[in-house]
Amino acid sequence: MKIYSFRKEEGKKITKYDSNFIMSRIIQSEKPVHVGCMHLEKNGVIGYHQAVVPQLLLIMNGEGLVRGERDEYIKVQSGDAVFWEKDEWHETKTDLGLTAIVIESEELNPDSFMALRIN
């Protein structure tokens, strides 16, 4: 399990086409990608299971705890991105609730775009 950051501070200011915003790049893939949004309510959990393909969980709102194969939980919050390799056992839970975008694909390489926060 690796934890990355896609917070505003990691982004790049975009001014092309009279734009004015910060872009935090996340991922690029040439293979099929599945993108979903997960809404975990208070005391919600994504149970302990193996990743079918490499998976990137982007915490958009709220906070929670994640773990990989070790029985050690790490706090995550808005702006964190958690990456699990194919077949890696993992779990996500929250006391207060969280909303996350999940990106799943055979070809994910978060190292190309995001700053590593925890390895």
Automatic annotation (TrEMBL):
It comes from the Bacteria. SUPFAM superfamilies: RmlC-like cupins. This is Cupin.
